[in-house]
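Batch manifest line 196
LIGAND: zinc ion
JOB: complex structure
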Amino acid sequence: MINPKWRIPATKGLGFKLGKGQMVRVTDVDGEQIADFVAYCANDTSERLDPSVTMDALRTMKVKPGDILYSNKYRPLLTLMADTVGQHDFINSACRSEMYEVLYNKQNHASCYHNLNQAIGEFGIPAPDQHYTINLFMNTVIHPSGQISIERPLSKAGDFIELRAEMDLIVAVSACPCAESACNGFVCTPIDVEII
Ligand SMILES: [Zn+2]
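JOB STATUS: finished
ARTIFACT:
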């Protein structure tokens, strides 16, 4: 059997179903590219992956294999199975066109918010007020002063993370279209997604 596999072009998004027990591998194809990740319970889309709840339950924002990612209702949604990077972001919500207006004075910029809305829309899930994403490979550094800096991702070409679904899910992934900051190493590149 051939595993379903997609290449998300730079700046684009993808939605797909992930059945309970299935595993998804998300790969940074060229390196230094982040992937905004959301997941909804297929049977009740009011329940979704929640990075804040996950941090509350794990008491860390540095996840490692074996850790569970939780829903907004404190139920296990996914388990981290493998990770070649070990640095992901749980605190920044999805970029959206308004962000590019405010931070970079650019109008109608592509965004993870739009990409994710489009991806979940194909499964009948309405656009939320914002996407509270887990940002795979994103290198957010919190300094002792409280200052937050977004630095170049630590991921190199071919680095990946694997997550196993603990219930039937609708998943969406966005290859973040921000070339304006170190977030994606100042250049947007593709993301591979494979169900394994
Ligand atoms: Zn983004």
